[in-house]
Design brief:
Length: 351
């Protein structure tokens, strides 16, 4: 075992809070997964289906409020928006999953605020016109997969498909912070992705920048902050010899993948680091096609990485992809509930 692996190997195990799998969950896709991160939604649905997990999209969901709502002049919009989603999901299943780290963070924060404030609960009840339900269990994508599939079971199905890759796990800020509210993994040294990644046959050495900020939503107001922060993350991963960065956050993915060209232009660098979603990596390990998983939708090509595991266009696995492009299931076709009504989103101030 090398020095980088030794730093976090002792802590690599299933989360202590993990409970037996339920197989069916309320699914909150949020705005990113139904827009700019469509490949995240597609890969999450396909990988979940392959693992026997049923995702029931929350009926008539609305935006979680993301970054702007918590700073709204009213003060409570950042709670009331996700509270409505908690309320709907609580009537459908005992647990819900939010793959977007930002949505997960807002939902957990709202639940925390509602738990501690009778005044907020009363305000939410007035908006909803009935007592608010908010005590549903909220999971992120990493927690869900850790609950529903063991490393041993995945290893048996993966048969070492991703052997030869070294994958950097990148958690960013929102999955683990604030630690007392998120209550997920170690916010300084998270390791929850590693057991399943290593079960795929891939190597996953210690990545010292795994919980550093990528710049988050500052790309609109202060793009240079995002470019500098993301550059550091990518350069460290490249310097340590990783083949790709793996994340479970669409905003992190946007900053690390889509902005690499901007980083190279701004700093004269030549970064070329693929950034994959956690669900895409597990999907590859299960034998799903890279095209079906949306890997070709990324700004930075993963062609070299796929060729390394025999999944390139001319690789031996190309003929076994799950469906030709013409018949490939779309995210819309795999959804188990109708898309949210845009009118309802406007009613709660998120139009």
């Amino acid at each position: 075992m090398n020095n980088r692996s030794r730093k976090d190997s002792a802590a690599i195990k299933a989360p202590a809070s993990a409970k037996p799998g339920r197989n069916a969950y309320s699914y909150f896709p949020g705005c990113s997964l139904t827009g700019s991160a469509g490949e995240y939604d597609a890969s999450f649905r396909l990988t979940s289906e392959a693992l026997g997990i049923r995702l029931d999209e929350i009926s008539d969901w609305n935006c979680c409020g993301a970054s702007p709502a918590p700073h709204h002049w009213s003060g409570n919009l950042g709670v009331l928006l996700p509270a409505r989603n908690l309320h709907i999901a609580s009537g459908e299943h005992e647990a819900m999953v939010a793959p977007c780290a930002g949505c997960y963070n807002r939902l957990k924060n709202a639940q925390h605020e509602l738990t501690g404030s009778e005044e907020l609960r009363e305000q939410a009840a007035r908006v909803l016109q009935e007592p608010v339900r908010y005590e549903i269990e909220i999971l992120n994508l990493v927690e869900l997969f850790a609950r529903e599939v063991s490393p041993e079971a995945l290893a048996e199905r993966a048969q070492g498909r991703l052997a030869g890759l070294n994958l950097a796990t990148y958690y960013g800020c929102l999955l683990t912070r604030p630690a007392k509210i998120m209550n997920f993994d170690n916010h300084r040294n998270p390791v929850s992705m590693k057991p399943l990644l290593r079960a795929t046959g891939a190597q996953s050495d210690h990545f010292p920048f795994k919980s550093e900020c990528c710049g988050s939503y500052m790309g609109l107001a202060k793009k240079e902050i995002v470019l500098r922060a993301s550059r550091r993350v990518i350069e460290v991963a490249a310097g340590l010899g990783f083949d790709a960065i793996v994340t479970a956050c669409p905003l992190c993915h946007q900053n690390l993948d889509l902005r690499q060209g901007q980083i190279n232009k701004a700093f004269g660098t030549s970064l070329d680091m693929p950034v994959l979603y956690y669900s895409q990596v597990l999907g590859l390990a299960l034998g799903l096609g890279s095209d079906d998983l949306g890997i070709d939708a990324h700004a930075i090509s993963a062609r070299k990485l796929l060729a390394k595991i025999g999944k390139g266009d001319d690789g031996p696995a190309a003929a076994t992809r799950s469906a030709p492009a013409a018949t490939r299931p779309t995210p819309e076709a795999t959804r188990s509930a109708p898309a949210a009504n845009p009118a309802s989103r406007r009613q709660v101030g998120c139009g």
